[in-house]
Amino acid sequence: MHLLLIDDHALFREGLKFLLRGLDQDLAIDEAGSVDAAAARRETAYDLVLLDLNLPGVGHLEALASIREAFPQAPVVVLSGEGDTFSSGAPRWGSLAPWRPPTMKC
Length: 106
Fold this sequence. Notes:
With about 110 residues, the chain is α/β, with parallel strands linked by helices.
């Protein structure tokens, strides 16, 4: 499986990559710190995109729409610590169903 992890926090990306590789050592993970950096990889075929919606310089739905346009074949899973992400319309823009950790109060 080949996935793209988009988040502006390098420490979070490293931690998530560590956890994911613990589940599957053969997992190929590319990373990007911004929507523009991710879109530059549009020629790469990904099986899954993990997207933080709280990226600097771009609105939530704009980020999601840009990633869906760049990678139309890949499912997108939204990563967000914000409680209102999904009420703001993310599923309408092609995100997979929301999942909130039990500790998140919304």
